[in-house]
């Protein structure tokens, strides 16, 4: 591991030098979306300026150049998460669409009335609602594994919920509210003993730690570009080839076909079977640039620095009278959700904003988890490798100032 040059890293992100309400921006809303390095912005401009043409469909130079960029991006993603083949990488509009794709295609092919889907109590809405939709259509049952007071999965209870009717398990790698890091390798191994496939929601993990799908042995894994320093509107679905070959297409249209007649359509090979219409080839190229950028810094180095930052922030914030952190798992990533006694989360977030400090307030697209925790919402500070201890100090100072106002 090497020590990161945070000043040099921050210089790569133009937005971090701006002011908000006359104060230097302190951006602590990274779980919602990360800021973009200049190289990603430059890649977007380069693509539109030099190779803008529809991919896969043209014999002319620009089309072939755009196609080369798009497919090179697929190979970059495959390398980044350790996929066995680029055919296992499907581009979508985000982690949400990736989960919807699996939920729709898998359930209609492999589930029957009375079958069950197993998730956990800490899931984001994106890993709840798509399964509920299929449950309503097909008569399936959604089972929910409980958590303890620290925000950790109760693994014994999780195991008890697995039975002969369990057809798929879908779990978050890292909770967007609690920061809890789930034991996904253990979950996958347990499921596979019974022949049950597992989907991992890695939207909050690929930017914070190394993720190797072959080591995890998951059947599906999803993440979003915009949470790992890439552009919005681009996502990834990883699926083992055996599963992607077995699933029917999620959407119909151009590109995902081999041949079409009014009587019958045959579908394209992987991964194009799941990529109907013109893809965001500019976005995929920029995502690849973002992945190359974090790889150049080193995921191991990023993880170590962010862990140090998380420990510092936790210690400093717990010293604030009346502050309570929700989510104290022993295995935890760069998220701190908290409440201040006597202050509504929205009021606290609004006042911090006036100090130039960007945090998130509300239920964080995890209403069922809030019900489990017995709260309406929280304030969430979420960290990235461009954040600093000095910014944590400003957050703590801001919270103390607001507490004195109340």
What would you say this structure looks like, in words?
By secondary structure, the protein is α/β, with parallel strands linked by helices. It folds into two domains: 6-30 and 298-405, Aspartate Aminotransferase, domain 1 (Alpha-Beta Complex); 42-295, Type I PLP-dependent aspartate aminotransferase-like (Major domain) (Aspartate Aminotransferase, domain 2), CATH 3.40.640. Helix content is 40%, strand content 17%. The protein is built from 14 helices and 17 strands. The strands form five sheets. The chain has a seven-stranded mixed β-sheet, sandwiched between helices. The longest helix is centred in the first third of the chain and has 21 residues, at 61-81. It is globular and about 70 Å long. The model has no long low-confidence stretch (mean pLDDT 95).
Distance between the termini: 44 Å
What is the CATH-assigned architecture of the largest domain? 3-Layer(aba) Sandwich
Let me know the average pLDDT: 95
| CATH fold-level topology of the largest domain | Aspartate Aminotransferase, domain 2
Helix count, DSSP H or I runs of 4 or more residues: 14
Shape: globular
Strand order of the largest sheet: 4-10-9-8-7-5-6
Main pleated-sheet profile: 7 strands, mixed
Using only C-alpha atoms, the radius of gyration works out to 22 Å
Structural class: alpha/beta
What's the CATH superfamily of the largest domain, by name?
Type I PLP-dependent aspartate aminotransferase-like (Major domain)
Which CATH C-level class of the largest domain is it? Answer: Alpha Beta
- Percent helix range: 25-40%
- Unreliable stretches: none
User: Strand-residue fraction?
Assistant: 15-25%
């Amino acid at each position: 591991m090497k020590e990161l040059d945070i000043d040099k890293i921050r210089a790569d992100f133009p937005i971090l030098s701006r002011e908000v309400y006359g104060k230097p921006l302190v951006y602590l809303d990274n779980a919602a979306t990360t800021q973009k390095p200049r190289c990603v912005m430059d890649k977007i401009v380069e693509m539109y300026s030099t190779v803008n043409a529809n991919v896969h469909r043209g014999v002319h130079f620009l089309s072939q150049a755009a196609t080369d960029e798009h497919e090179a991006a697929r190979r970059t993603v495959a390398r980044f998460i350790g996929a066995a083949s680029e055919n296992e990488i499907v581009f979508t509009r985000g982690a949400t669409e990736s989960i919807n794709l699996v939920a729709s295609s898998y359930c209609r092919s492999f589930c029957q009335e009375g079958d069950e889907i197993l998730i956990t109590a800490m899931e984001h809405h994106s890993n709840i609602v798509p399964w509920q939709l299929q449950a309503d259509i097909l008569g399936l049952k959604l089972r929910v594994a409980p958590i303890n007071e620290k925000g950790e999965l109760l693994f014994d209870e999780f195991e008890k919920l697995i039975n002969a009717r369990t057809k798929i398990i879908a779990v978050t790698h890292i909770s967007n509210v609690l920061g809890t890091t789930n034991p996904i390798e253990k979950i996958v191994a347990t499921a596979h003993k019974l022949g049950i496939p597992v989907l991992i929601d890695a939207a909050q993990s690929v930017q914070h730690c190394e993720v190797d799908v072959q080591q995890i042995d998951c059947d599906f894994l999803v993440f979003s570009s915009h949470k790992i320093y890439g552009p919005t509107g681009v996502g990834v679905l990883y699926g083992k080839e055996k599963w992607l070959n077995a699933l029917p297409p999620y959407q119909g249209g151009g590109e995902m076909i081999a041949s079409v007649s009014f009587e019958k359509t045959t579908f394209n090979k992987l991964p194009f079977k799941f990529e109907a219409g013109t893809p965001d080839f500019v976005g995929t190229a920029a995502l690849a640039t973002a992945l190359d950028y974090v790889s150049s810094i080193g995921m191991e180095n990023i993880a170590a620095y962010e862990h140090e930052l998380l420990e510092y922030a936790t210690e400093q914030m717990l010293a604030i009278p009346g502050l309570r952190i929700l989510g104290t798992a022993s295995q935890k990533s760069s998220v701190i959700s908290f409440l201040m006694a006597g202050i509504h989360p929205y009021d606290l977030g609004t006042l911090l904003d006036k100090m130039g400090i960007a945090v998130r307030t509300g239920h964080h697209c995890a209403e069922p988890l809030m019900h489990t925790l017995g709260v309406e919402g929280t304030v969430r500070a979420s960290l990235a490798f461009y954040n600093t201890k000095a910014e944590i100090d400003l957050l703590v100072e801001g919270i103390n100032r607001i507490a004195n106002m109340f």
